[in-house]
Design a protein that fits this description.
Elements (H helix, E strand, L loop, with lengths): L1 H15 L2 E7 L3 E7 L2 E8 L2 E6 L19 E7 L4 E2 L2 E2 L1 H20 L26
Antiparallel strand pairs: 1-2, 2-3, 3-4, 4-5, 6-7
Helix pairs in contact: 1-2
Length: 136
């Protein structure tokens, strides 16, 4: 089963144009790699996951293996239901979630929000929140 998972992961990574590897194949489960030049990892444990990325100062660093002095940024999290396919954990779904989170973050950081109108709560181009969610 693990060999099949690794093959499926490699195939999906190639489709998405990313690099990814299973860094920890147990508890916690950790998927690490690079999306568009930004190092990331997805860590799942006890039914919760999060996506963490490398800092702007060194975007290519592997945040999973970087030392504690390297700042990282958590950009997404959720419960493990999002990583399931047909009721079971799916490594390719985990890659889709991680890759989507990193690309969304990068798109939002690069967007100038030029098409947003006064009063818009979200940018119509990138979807970034323009008003803190807790604000009226």
């Amino acid at each position: 089963m693990r060999a099949e998972e690794r093959q499926a992961l490699a195939a999906r990574a190639a489709e998405l144009g990313v690099r990814a590897r299973i860094a920890v194949d147990g508890a916690p489960f950790v998927l690490a790699g690079t999306v568009d030049g930004r190092g990331f990892y997805l860590r799942e444990r006890h039914g919760l996951w999060r996506v963490t990325i490398a800092p702007d100062e060194d975007p290519g660093v592997d945040p999973w293996t970087a030392g504690p002095s390297v700042p990282t940024l958590d950009i997404a999290d959720g419960d493990a239901d999002r990583l399931l396919v047909k009721g079971g954990f799916d490594v390719t779904r985990a890659l889709d979630v991680a890759g989507g989170a990193v690309r969304s973050f990068l798109r939002q950081q690069a967007c100038a929000h030029g098409r947003a109108l006064s009063g818009d709560r979200f940018c119509p181009v990138c979807g970034a929140a323009l008003v803190a969610p807790e604000m009226p």
